[in-house]
Amino acid sequence: AQSVSQHNHHVILSEAASLELGCNYSYGGTVNLFWYVQYPGQHLQLLLKYFSGDPLVKGIKGFEAEFIKSKFSFNLRKPSVQWSDTAEYFCAVKNSGGYQKVTFGTGTKLQVIP
Amino acid sequence: GAVVSQHPSWVICKSGTSVKIECRSLDFQATTMFWYRQFPKQSLMLMATSNEGSKATYEQGVEKDKFLINHASLTLSTLTVTSAHPEDSSFYICSASSSGRVETQYFGPGTRLTVL
Fold first, then answer.
1. For the segment B52-103, what is each residue's pLDDT rounded down to a tens digit?
2. Between chain A and chain B, how many beta carbons pairs sit less than 8 Å apart?
3. Distance CA B24, CA B108 (A)
């Protein structure tokens, strides 16, 4: 069975600080990887995804994530956070076969202080 | 972007009653809808996948007789929690996909169910 670990439950940063949120997954096969974001009072929405190809994936709002297969990781990064990045971030994994199940991590709450 | 709504946004009910939650895709046709459940400080757990016009596929450990899912049209799916008990209290979130693939799912805002 696949699983996802997000080690940071709550992160507090000042504006302009760099961000890296950890995500490790457990699955032996080929995977699709996702980061979702949930801004306060809003729906979950897709931030970026990796299916294949370049392991460095760029998403919306300046976010990027790097898939490191050997480390089973898909960490999310942003060089300079803004107050508007305050949100909860969820890493998720799906096996790339036909089975339609996305497994989510427990989420990381990011608080950016102006 | 694609919009998915849920109704109600929150509901409180007595133990033993049934509660229906609606999930609608407002500006696209949803071939497939997914129902998730989220406990406090835990991740979203997929409960079931429903394709329009066919029976839902439930994840292991989810009671299909307790969580009735109907996906009768391309814009509406319903989840009915039958004979609700306090342990069913949770946050229920639906998502919808026009492509039929979970990779392109759009999420609803969720429904908070509290069973007294």
1. 888 899 999 999 999 999 998 999 999 999 999 999 999 999 999 988 888 8
2. 46
3. 8
